């Protein structure tokens, strides 16, 4: 069960990141594809699978946020990534603001991935 949950989680992570990067690239070219229904719905489906698999892994491993500090850091990192992703894709009104949000989101994502691999909080 653990390997299935882990592979599902990692697959959802990769799909979520790739789709975020793709949507950002499309937004830079003002692509009409961003208005397609599947582009608006698919990220929510992937992120739901991502969250469900994360909860599944927590239950399997009996490790929970706010009990294990590395997992707390990971949850806070994901929240920061989501907010910075919103800056990059929706909230920022200027191109430099969108790029700052995009780069910051990827930096937070990298730190969160490091914590996930090492199981040691950065702070």
From TrEMBL:
GO terms for cellular component: plasma membrane. Keywords: Membrane, Transmembrane, Transmembrane helix. The keyword Cell membrane does not apply. It holds the Pfam family SirB. The keyword Transmembrane helix applies. The chain crosses the membrane at residues 41-61, 73-92, 98-117. This is SirB family protein. It comes from Alteromonas halophila.
